[in-house]
Amino acid sequence: VTALNRLKAIVGSHGWIETPADVARYATDYRRLYGGPTPIVLRPGSTAEVASIVTACAEAGLAIVPQGGNTSLVGGSVPTAHGGEVILSLERMNRIRAFAPSDATITVEAGCTLAAVQAAAAEAGQLFPLRLGSQGTCQIGGNLSTNAGGSNVLHYGNARDLVLGLEVVLPDGTVWDGLRALRKDNTGYNLKQLFIGAEGTLGIITAAVLKLSPQPKAVETAFLAVPDVDAAVALLNLVKDSAEYGVTAFELMSRASLDLAQARLAGGRTPLPLEAAGWFVLLEIVGGGTLNDALMALLTEAQDRGLLLDGVVAGSLAQAEEFWRLREEISDAQTAAGGSVRCDIAVPISRMADFITAASLAVREIVPEVRIIAYGHVGDGNVHFNPLRAVEAAPEEFLRHAPAISHVVDDIAHALGGSISAEHGVGQAKRDELPNYKSPVELDLFRLIKRALDPRNTMNPGKLLARS
Ligand code: FAD
Ligand code: LAC
Ligand code: ZN
Question: Quick one: which atom of ligand 1 is closest to the CA of 72?
Answer without folding.
Answer: 2
